[in-house]
């Protein structure tokens, strides 16, 4: 938001908030960033977590199949 | 006054995550374990949620970019795709459970499932089409206040105050010890508080609201207020369901309406009615926030306008994605004989398991001084952020090992 100027009254609060906040909502003002350099360690970490998620999802699918076969 | 104007994303994300499956998980916890270990544990999960969500406030306020678009921008399409795949799958499943909660809550009042689900979908659509972030946020906050309805129900359940105080100081008792049900509820209660959609939603909402680096302090306060209020509501839900534990009523297959009906002899008809309304409200608010989270991410990744301030003409892909996500989930809920309670618990487990990669992306971005400058994580913030990540990974691995080798746990 631009400034912290106090609102004149509760009834005008919403209008004041919009005026204060909405200039910062304009997408055109966004900065475009390039790709971040990823070290070998970070890439290994991301892959390890990806494998972790896939294994866990496989585990949940297995459990659902088990649960559907019979009472837990 | 300034806080009232700036409050929003933090409170919404925390009360939004006190959603249908979360409240049912808390009720299951109270019915299975009573007053004891889980009370402080649930508070701990909200501290974890605050640590994680505070980082999204800084990211959104400093970069003015949504979570999905920042991941794509900094890590490229390959890793961005994985992050989005986790989000889309998690959000769809979670949205399904929100409509399950709506259906269960209104089922207590005899509302037919199809009518309940259709009505909730129309409310989601109506709120979204207010076409102004500010209006949308205030309406949703108005609904979210009803999350506190669990507090009077807890009071009506007459919990023993000394037991409650002792539980917070001793993290005990834990009836039955560590067994398979305990592990499932641990995972479900973590997933009830710390989930990937919250990261995407709060960062995008911070941007849509227009907060800047100067507003980070208020954003933190907003998030802290949300965490405290949501934690109180969560603990209240556990306490409200405790009579079922005390009277040895098996609740393992209960849905929202079943809980309300089973609690009626202990909290009265008023308490049971409030409980059912609370489950309905939890599902409705989360349906609004989670479908918004999906739509924000869709718009950010596709490079389309993605703001609740867009006109229908300008932002139609955003609104279409939002309503489509809600419509698909609503339709899935109406499939006959679906194992709804099991779905609810599994969804929270999936949320917990998919959280570590999401937090690592978050930590990498919030430590990126090229985009964060002086607002990058401090060593102490990294300590807490990494601790949460390690805890989630360990909880997931514990769940995985005990699922494959259940004989390691006592039954």
Explain this structure.
The complex is a heterodimer of chains A (72) and B (411). Chain A is an all-alpha fold and 72 residues long. Chain A is 58% helix and 0% strand. Chain A has 2 helices and no strands. The mean pLDDT of chain A is 70. With 411 residues, chain B is mostly helical. Chain B has one domain: Amino acid/polyamine transporter I (Up-down Bundle). Chain B is built from 18 helices and no strands. In chain B, α2 runs antiparallel to α11 and α6 runs antiparallel to α14. Chain B is globular, with a radius of gyration of 20 Å. Classes of the chains: A mainly alpha (72), B mainly alpha (411). The interface between A and B is large, with 41 and 49 residues.
What features would you highlight for this structure?
heterodimer; A: 72 residues; mainly alpha; 2 domains; 58% helix; B: 411 residues; Amino acid/polyamine transporter I; 18 helices; globular
Topology:
The complex is a heterodimer of chains A (72) and B (411).
Chain A: H1 10-21, H2 40-69
Chain B: H1 2-6, H2 9-17, H3 20-33, H4 38-63, H5 67-107, H6 113-128, H7 133-144, H8 150-156, H9 161-170, H10 180-191, H11 196-209, H12 216-246, H13 256-302, H14 316-333, H15 340-353, H16 355-366, H17 369-372, H18 379-404
Helix pairs in contact in B: 2-7, 2-11, 2-12, 2-13, 3-10, 3-12, 3-13, 3-15, 4-11, 4-12, 4-16, 5-6, 5-11, 5-13, 5-14, 5-15, 5-16, 6-13, 6-14, 7-13, 8-12, 8-13, 10-15, 10-18, 11-13, 12-13, 13-14, 16-18
| Topology, number of strands of chain B | 0
Instruction: Give the rounded overall mean pLDDT of chain A.
Output: 70
Tell me the name of the CATH class of chain B. Answer: Mainly Alpha
Would you tell me the structural class of the helices and strands of chain B?
Answer: mainly alpha
% residues in beta strands of chain A? under 5%
CATH superfamily of chain B: Amino acid/polyamine transporter I
Number of domains of chain B: 1
Shape of chain B: globular
Number of self-contained structural domains of chain A: 2
The percentage of residues in β strands of chain B lies in: under 5%
Distance between the termini of chain A: 54 Å
Number of strands of chain A: 0
Span between N and C termini of chain B?
Answer: 54 Å
Please state the overall shape of chain A, judged from the principal axes of the Cα atoms.
flat
CATH architecture of chain B: Up-down Bundle
Kindly name the structural category of chain A.
Answer: mainly alpha
């Amino acid at each position: 938001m631009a400034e912290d100027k106090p609102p004149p009254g509760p009834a005008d609060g919403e209008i004041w908030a919009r005026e204060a906040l909405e200039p910062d909502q304009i997408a055109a003002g966004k900065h475009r960033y390039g790709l971040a350099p990823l070290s070998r360690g970070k890439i290994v970490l991301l892959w390890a977590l990806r494998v972790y998620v896939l294994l866990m999802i496989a585990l949940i699918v297995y459990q659902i199949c088990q649960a559907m076969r019979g009472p837990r | 006054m300034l806080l009232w104007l700036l409050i929003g994303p933090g409170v919404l994300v925390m009360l939004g995550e006190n959603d249908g499956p979360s409240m049912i998980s808390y009720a299951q916890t109270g019915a299975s374990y009573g007053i004891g270990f889980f009370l402080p544990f649930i508070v701990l999960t909200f501290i974890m949620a605050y640590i994680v969500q505070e980082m999204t406030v800084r990211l959104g306020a400093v970069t003015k970019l949504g979570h999905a678009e920042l991941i794509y921008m900094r890590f490229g399409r390959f890793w961005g795709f994985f992050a989005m795949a986790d989000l889309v799958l998690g959000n769809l499943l979670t949205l399904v459970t929100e409509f399950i909660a709506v259906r269960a809550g209104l089922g207590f009042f005899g509302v037919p499932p199809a009518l309940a689900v259709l009505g909730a979908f129309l409310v989601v659509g109506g709120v979204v089409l207010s076409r102004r972030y500010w209006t949308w946020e205030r309406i949703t906050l108005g609904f979210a206040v009803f999350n506190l309805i669990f507090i009077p129900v807890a009071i009506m359940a007459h919990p023993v105050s000394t037991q409650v105080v002792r539980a917070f100081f001793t993290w005990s008792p834990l009836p039955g010890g560590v067994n398979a049900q305990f592990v499932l509820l641990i995972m479900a209660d973590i997933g009830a508080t710390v989930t990937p959609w919250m990261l995407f939603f709060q960062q995008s909402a911070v941007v849509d609201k227009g907060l800047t680096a100067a507003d980070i302090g208020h954003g933190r306060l907003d998030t802290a207020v949300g965490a405290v209020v949501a934690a109180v509501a969560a603990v209240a839900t556990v306490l409200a369901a405790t009579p079922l534990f005390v009277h040895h009523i098996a609740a393992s297959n209960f849905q929202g309406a079943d809980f309300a009906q089973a609690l009626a002899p202990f909290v009265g008809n008023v308490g049971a009615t409030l409980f059912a309304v609370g489950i309905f409200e939890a599902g409705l608010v989360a349906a609004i926030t989670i479908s918004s989270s999906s739509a924000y991410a869709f718009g950010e990744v596709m490079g389309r306008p993605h703001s609740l301030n867009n006109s229908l003409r300008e932002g139609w892909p955003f609104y279409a994605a939002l309503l489509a996500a809600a419509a698909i989930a609503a339709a899935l809920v109406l499939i006959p004989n679906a194992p709804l309670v099991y779905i609810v618990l599994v969804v929270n487990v999936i949320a917990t398991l998919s959280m570590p990669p999401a937090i690592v992306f978050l930590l990498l971005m919030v430590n990126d001084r090229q985009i964060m400058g002086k607002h990058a994580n401090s060593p102490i913030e990294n300590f807490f952020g990494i601790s949460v990540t390690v805890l989630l990974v360990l909880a997931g691995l514990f769940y995985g090992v005990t699922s494959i080798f259940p004989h390691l746990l006592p039954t």
